[in-house]
Amino acid sequence: MRHLRRQDGAGGAAAAIDPRVRLLAAGVLLALVVSSSGAVFPWAVAAFCLPAALAQGMGLRTLLLRLLHPLFIAAVVLVLKSFMGPGSSVELFRIGSFGATFHVCGFRDGLLIASRIMGAVSVALLLGQVATFTETMAALAWLRVPRALVEVTLFAWRSLFMLYDDAATVYTAQKNRLGYCGLRRGLRSFGTMAGMLVIRAFDNSDAMTIAMTQRGYDGSLPLLRGARLSMAQVAGLVLFTAVATAAWSVQNWPR
């Protein structure tokens, strides 16, 4: 999520689509990717979503950085499944009592899991690029997601930036006083900073609770409560679901 609120001119063509439609479309794609029994459909979803994220304004460097962790996880899963899978195997090398065998069935299973990971991550990246945090939370509240989950997510999102600013201030002060010269002093300074952040987190949560209660907060998020979905938006969502399901069924339909 790039911003709490949409900036002028941000969002591209996707800004005209209702946030609820974007969220439901992303949910449909995620369900189809996870339930796919072949690797072609998830890779096709990734091939569509990643260029779409670039077209919506995401930088190439940002995209690559956000793909590093899922790519690493997918690579680890692929390697583990290749050397630990069932079925016939091919011995690659042997040194004394230690040897490595390559399992073809395990490699195929690893490719399937890796494709699901990359397909799901690409959908999440595109959704995070075309939807702001406020729009996503409002859409979740409209979809009757448990109120406690929405509240915790909202408070956690706000607290992240507050704690980040506090941590940056404390770290700068410690560094200017040579608090990180040497391993022992660095560990002591880091422990002091962690303790201060925990105390500030509790203090900030109490202050936030009191301030929001005094301003009449009742736990509801009414941003999209009175907004109705247009028939054109609903028809577009139905068409998108039909096309995505048809593409999914080409590979996954039982034969």
3D architecture notes:
This protein folds into 2 domains: 173 residues, no CATH class; 79 residues, no CATH class. It contains 8 helices and 2 strands. Helix content is 70%, strand content 5%. The two termini are 41 Å apart. The protein is mainly alpha-helical and 255 residues long. The protein has a two-stranded antiparallel ribbon. α1 runs antiparallel to α4 and α1 runs parallel beside α8.
What is the β-strand count? 2
Terminus-to-terminus distance: 41 Å
Q: Mind telling me the C-alpha Rg?
A: 24 Å
Succession of helices and strands: HHHEEHHHHH
How many H/I helical runs? Answer: 8
Number of domains: 2
Unreliable segments of 5+ consecutive residues: 1-10
Global structural class: mainly alpha
From the spread of the alpha carbons, the general shape counts as flat
Proportion in helices: over 70%
β-strand percent reads 5-15%
- Widest beta sheet: strand line-up: 1-2
Q: For the residues shown, what is the average pLDDT?
A: 82
Largest sheet: 2 strands, antiparallel
Q: How would you briefly describe this protein structure?
A:
By secondary structure, the chain is mainly α. It has 2 domains: 1-145 and 228-255, no CATH class; 146-224, no CATH class.
